[in-house]
Amino acid sequence: MSTPPKELVAETNSMLRIMLTETMLRKLETLRHFRRPLLGPTITSRNEVVTWHKNAVLNPYTMVASGSDTPLAMGSFSYSLSPLGRLRIGRYCSIAKGLSVFLPDHPTSFVTTSSAVYAPTEVNTAAALRDAGIEDFSFFAPAPERKPAPVFENDVWIGANVTMKNGITIGTGAVVAAQSIVTKSVEPYMIVGGNPARPIRRRFNDALCEGLLASEWWRYKWTEFRTLGMDQPEAFLDRLGEAVAQGSIRPYEPEPITWQTVKALALE
Questions:
Q1: Which residues are CB-neighbours of 100 under 8 A, at least 6 positions away?
Q2: pLDDT digits (tens, 9 = 90+) for 200-243
Q3: Cα torsion at 119, 124, 129, 131 (round to 10°)?
Q4: Range picked from 81-95, 128-142, 216-230 for highest mean pLDDT
Q5: Distance of alpha carbon 47 from its chain centroid, rounded?
Q6: Annotated active-site positions, please?
Q7: CB 174 within 8 A of CB 156
Q8: Do both 165 and 91 map to the same domain?
Q9: What's the pTM value of the predicted model, to 2 decimals?
Q10: Count of the separate structural domains present in the chain
Q11: Do residue 49 and residue 97 come from a single domain?
Q12: Residue range of the domain that includes 75
């Protein structure tokens, strides 16, 4: 009889490497964290191995593409059909396929833009150094500043095949049109598109946008405000305010899904 695949493949001080067997996928579902194959709604597994960072903070009711590394943060009721790497994503976000993030900039002010002048650990550069008998790396210029990955606030919708620059923030309620290249931060409730992405319009008038932001409606579980008229934003705000004042709706504050929990499931 064959031995089942080992689901905890590796562990370091900063991350786990988890094999997504069908059994492990089922275990993650008990935490209400889902992995969706790109070709259909049914659960499948090719025993892909993914990274789960130990500083990652995920909430229940999240879904990412099968085979994608776990993001550093993902709020409830968000999903992504793109690999996420080290992104931070708020609640109620929708990310289509094909999202990519620029690699770090190369130095345009040096004699050459080649990473050979600042990344001696790249395999091809390291090989050239060894072949030349060079051990002193002190002459290398400092690497360009590595900016943090993009941050998505709440209720962000990213269309298909979008490319983004590092170090930017996509504000709450913003929409990025498909095929866009985003090089600057996007204001809350702004729709942007193009190459480079430019503002098209706000989703609502300024007063309504400010009201939605002030309400922090994303702190609540949608199954509890589903009857408040989500297709009527102005009325929704009034009804939500009443519900909060009456104490009939409270912020949804679930226990986060921790790496310790994931590790325990992998070892079961």
A1: 82, 162, 163, 164
A2: 999 999 999 999 999 999 999 999 999 999 999 999 999 999 99
A3: 180
A4: 216-230
A5: 22
A6: 106
A7: yes
A8: yes
A9: 0.84
A10: 2
A11: yes
A12: 8-101+155-205+259-267
